[in-house]
Design a protein that fits this description.
Blueprint: E1 11-13, H1 15-32, H2 35-42, H3 47-50, E2 60-67, E3 70-77, H4 83-99, H5 112-127, E4 134-138, H6 148-160, E5 164-168, E6 173-176, E7 179-182, E8 185-186, E9 189-192, H7 205-212, E10 217-219, H8 222-229, H9 233-237, H10 240-246, H11 250-259, E11 263-265, H12 271-276, E12 281-285, E13 295-296, H13 302-310, E14 313-317, E15 322-328, E16 331-344, E17 347-356, E18 369-375
Parallel strand pairs: 1-18, 4-5, 4-9, 9-10
Antiparallel strand pairs: 2-3, 2-16, 6-7, 7-8, 11-14, 12-13, 12-14, 15-16, 16-17, 17-18
Helix pairs in contact: 1-11
Length: 377
Amino acid sequence: THPQLFSNTTVFISPAQLQQMRDIVHAVGRVVSLPAYTKDVLARVSAIARYNPGTSGVFMGYDFHLSEQGPQIIEINTNAGGAFLNAALVSAQTECCRAAGTLLPLLKTQFDQEFVQMFLLEWQLQRGDQPLTRIAIVDENPSQQFLYPEFKMAQRLFERNGINAIIADPSELQFSGGQLVHQGQVIDLVYNRLTDFSLAGESLAALCSAYEMGSVVLTPNPHQYALYADKRNLVILGDAAQLEKLGASETDIELLSAAIPKTQAVTADNAENLWAIRKQLFFKPASGFGSRAAYRGDKLTKRVWDEILQGDYVAQQIVLPSERGILVDKEQTALKMDIRAYVYNGEIQLLAARLYQGQTTNFRTQGGGFAPVFVAS
């Protein structure tokens, strides 16, 4: 059903590139923890995003292009998909290599228990020693989602570890008696796969109420999205002058201003200049996800440009992705590549590559899809 979900190749990075990515992730975490940064970012968001329940947020995703200047952050996501799938892919590759008498170096190979412990820690950060009984994996029309297979993988993993797990559309949830309920059963924790990051949709009313009342542990949540994944944050994180003003260290300023392509908000004041240099830019909605409503400047029409000016967009300097050569139907083909780092509590858990052709990452390219990342010394 998903012929382009996994590529039939592997990707190699150097130990230096891995360390650079770690350093960048750590630097972002340090800046986000600065009181001045938090104050500035939260001043522009909704009340629900300002509410901090104290969790860290599972499966933060840092998407990198590998350039000659080093890894470049293209965007940060708070509900990055694919971790369970890529953990299984790494496991399969590792077994194949072992059977062939070869062992390729990975970041790590055991993920199941680490993922379970991550969810348990999220629970404990809000509920202490109370038992975690039931998890709901929530997305709109979950069975129709492209990554639905990994919802099933997550469900099976939780249940193998003694935690009841259900997969549900948010409209199937009720807020009753101060508890979040699904078909009469109380939900303790919601693994949030929604892309309505502020829980504003009508179908999310029960989940939103339960979250605001502290009746359910929601991970990731609107607060984490506001601090990390709103694309307007890249304007701050990549600007040396703003970082200095916020109190960032010289080391972090140097690191992030080099690792984050120049990003600026699209406004009426800079519209004329941005249009003139549009071929050098990529335009993304501030609160968008994936590649939806994102445009390369050299593909823009006047009609789309007018829509961008009416919306809330950022313009990011284009950093061309690196390429991975593969064989497709016995012919050599170069596919574009990015690296996704799955991060929890500031540490990289897992790396995966996405191989594709076209304007943005997709899972429709023959020979493309997720690929495991090996660290080659």
